Structure to design on (80 residues):
């Protein structure tokens, strides 16, 4: 395999890994939004935008838990 072929192969592998991670992040965001919607009804656009802008998987996990246990949408928003 030539160097160019190896670099293309590595690029494809990296692209697939990045795509998978992007998909997982989107699933985490959607889980937070779904939990909020089920508990509190329609989610204000500003809050939705804030959640969709989060790129930290640990923060999204914490927000998912907060969406499940928060007493109100206001208390959830305080955890942002």
């Amino acid at each position: 395999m030539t160097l160019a072929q190896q670099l293309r192969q590595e690029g494809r592998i990296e692209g697939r890994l990045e795509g998978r991670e992007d998909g997982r992040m989107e699933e985490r965001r959607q889980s937070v939004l779904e939990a909020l919607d089920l508990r509190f009804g329609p989610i204000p656009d500003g809050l939705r935008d804030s959640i969709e802008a989060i790129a930290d998987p640990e923060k999204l996990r914490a927000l998912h838990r907060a969406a499940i246990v928060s007493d109100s949408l206001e208390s959830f928003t305080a955890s942002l």
